[in-house]
Design goal:
With 502 residues, this protein is mainly α. Helices cover 73% and strands 0% of the residues.
């Protein structure tokens, strides 16, 4: 480890250290000083501490990490443009998740729950800047272990424990695949550093061992983004987990996983990309991702059509969105990666907001939110119904919301890949299935805006905690602003990627 500037290392990892310290402070404050006060005050004070920690970490991230990448040497942990962008998004999503937790996480273990959310945030932030296979694996496991616990945190519900166990078992298999694949890549290239892997492969053709390692690593990372057929954990986890837990799994986990997938494939194994263009098939990871994209698009959208439980509907929507996102990697260029990260951020904001609305409905109705439970939402809580419309129409890709531009830039990047229209077949399929998704989103909006309340005279307004209102309006405003100003965001992303060597 000689040659590492540990002062620079501490400065570059300062955002993660701040969030980690915040988790410990929240846990200690709740255990030592707040057990004698009411549950509502405990949630408020610890939530405000968590917000403050995320805010300070964001400020340090934007202003205190310059020049860190070159100073870390063999550690494989960098704060380049892509890492800063992804970490900023993760911090925002974590803060929104904390806002939902303050009002909708029905547990007395306040400090433990918020500390787990913050520790998961640390894992996702480390994952965003990992430039070494070992660092990638450690960050994956740190974030995954936290998410397993958050999924089954509500011990009073048997289905939560069952979903957490299923998530853990499938995740353990995915971790084993990933680690074995990484060992194969190391055996062939002689290094775990992503830049060194690309040099180790050189211009030589990819052998069987390298192919096996690549397939196993892609399979493990596909589990994290919930791409079919590695999505089997997602519907149960989204349905049974506490609402804030499901929101973090659907949003922050997907953004960070897409970022590390970009690094591993485009930095570590650019020579193995191949081509998925129609009539010009060349074996490579782009073909593998194209297959995963097709399966995710078809299965996610068709399965969502028959769901009456809104959480499961959002889970299959997440599977479909993983398929859309993979288009950016299949394009194999900087424009595609920029479109992918923009799309991931817009999806994540919409997903957090959608789960926030689900938490409101479940708090009023009790039990799991089904389609019928949204009936008359516009009369009981018009502001919440308006936010729901923004989130779902963005997920459906309706202009001028951010989700439309996210998909649009992905399709443009895919069509412009290689200067030909070889990926036109994949774009046509994605557009067709995007119209299918509009149908099941409109089913929810129909209940909220057209249907009358379930019982006569049940039109009284709902009292919604201010934390949830703030979370919903911040997420909705983010979706609208990203839709109004997509070009500056895309340009900043492309500049960040250029500084990252992508």
């Amino acid at each position: 480890m000689g040659g590492v500037n540990y002062g620079a290392l501490m400065r570059g990892a300062a955002p993660e250290l701040i969030v980690l310290a915040t988790a410990l402070v929240v846990l200690l404050a709740d255990l030592a000083g707040l057990r004698g006060v009411s549950l509502r005050v405990r949630w408020l004070l610890t939530g405000l501490m968590s917000w403050a920690g995320c805010g300070v970490a964001a400020v340090v991230l934007l202003h205190g990490t310059t020049g860190f990448q070159a100073a870390t040497g063999p550690l494989g942990f960098a704060v380049d443009g892509l890492a800063v962008w992804v970490k900023g998004v993760v911090l925002l999503l974590s803060a929104l998740t904390v806002g939902l937790s303050m009002a909708s996480a029905r547990t007395r273990h306040v400090g433990e729950y918020l500390a787990l959310i913050l520790l998961g945030t640390v894992g996702l932030m480390v994952l965003a800047g990992a430039g070494d296979l070992l660092m990638v694996f450690l960050a994956l496991e740190l974030s995954s272990l936290v998410l397993y616990v958050l999924t089954g945190f509500d011990k009073e519900r048997g289905e939560a424990g069952e979903a957490a166990l299923k998530y853990f078992l499938v995740g353990s298999v995915a971790a084993a695949f990933t680690l074995y694949g990484m060992s194969l890549l190391y055996g062939v290239t002689g290094t775990t550093r992503l830049e060194g892997m690309a040099q180790g492969v050189g211009g030589a053709p990819m052998g069987v061992t390298l192919w096996a390692g690549l397939v196993l690593v892609v399979a493990g990372l596909a589990f994290k983004v919930a791409a079919a057929p590695f999505h089997l954990w997602a519907p149960d986890a989204y349905q049974a987990a506490p609402t804030p837990s499901a929101a973090l799994i659907a949003s922050g986990s997907k953004v960070a996983a897409f970022a590390v997938l970009v690094r591993v494939l485009m930095t570590g194994l650019p020579q193995g990309a191949g081509s998925a263009g129609w009539g010009a098939w060349v074996p490579g990871w782009s073909v593998l991702l194209a297959v995963l994209s097709v399966v995710s698009l078809v299965w996610g959208n068709l399965a969502a059509l028959v769901q009456s439980n809104v959480r499961r509907l959002l889970a299959y929507s997440a599977v479909a969105h993983a398929g859309y996102g993979l288009l950016g990697l299949v394009a194999q260029d900087r424009a595609g990666v920029a479109a992918l990260m923009y799309f991931a951020a817009t999806y994540a904001l919409s997903a957090v907001g959608a789960f926030g609305v689900v938490s409101v409905v479940e708090a009023q109705r009790g039990g799991q939110a089904r389609l019928a439970d949204f009936a008359g939402l516009s009369r009981r809580a018009p502001g919440v119904a308006l936010c729901l419309m923004v989130f779902l129409l963005s997920l459906a890709g309706i202009p001028p919301l951010a989700g439309f531009f996210g998909k649009f830039y992905l399709f443009v990047a895919a069509l412009g890949s290689g200067g030909s229209l070889g990926l036109l077949w994949l774009v046509i399929l994605a557009v067709a299935l995007s119209t299918v998704s509009l149908y099941y989103y409109l089913l929810v909006l129909k209940e909220a805006w057209v249907r009358s309340p379930l019982s006569e005279g049940d039109e009284a307004g709902w009292e919604i905690p201010w934390q949830v209102r703030v979370t919903l309006w911040v997420a909705a405003l983010g979706v609208v602003l990203l839709g109004m100003f997509p070009s500056p965001v895309l340009r900043s992303l492309e500049s960040a990627l250029a500084g990252s060597g992508l």
